[in-house]
Write a structure and sequence with these properties.
There is one protein chain. The chain is α/β, with parallel strands linked by helices and 132 residues long. A 5-stranded mixed beta sheet has the order 1-3-2-4-5, sandwiched between helices.
């Protein structure tokens, strides 16, 4: 193997990959009012752009959506931890850390997943959302 090819290949493995996309609305107080009034299941994803755990969780959600079409019926709202991590809503929902997923229906919590970037846990949460 050529040294230049090896170095370029090795360097490419250290470049962070972009997160897979899944359809999500960005959180605002107006979006929360809408979510509260919806008679549908919504997953609120408390995340930070700099958090590896949050990126892994987002990738796992995107993979699950690609594999199971039923999951595409679930609405997602991404909540920026840096902006809303210390908000009254976050305190009221008892969210204490980023990388928290909340399954909500009519403003009430159905299920929660905190700091668990594992495919089985994410799928279990998505299944709970479908069952609600």
């Amino acid at each position: 193997m050529h040294r230049r090819t090896f170095l370029l290949t090795s360097a490419a493995s250290f470049i962070p990959t972009l997160s897979l996309a899944y359809p999500a609305e960005m959180f605002t107080p107006a979006v929360w009012r809408d979510v509260r009034d919806r008679d549908e299941v919504v997953i609120m994803n408390y995340r930070a752009s700099w958090s590896l755990t949050c990126e892994i969780t987002a990738d796992l959600i995107a993979e699950a959506l690609a594999e199971n079409p039923a999951y595409r019926d679930i609405a997602f709202v991404d909540v920026d931890w840096d902006t809303f991590g210390r908000s009254q809503l976050t305190e009221r929902l008892k969210v204490t850390r980023r990388s928290t997923l909340l399954v909500m229906k009519n403003g009430k919590e159905i299920a929660r997943l905190e700091n668990a970037p594992y495919a089985r846990d994410v799928r279990r949460l998505l299944d709970a959302a479908l069952a609600a």
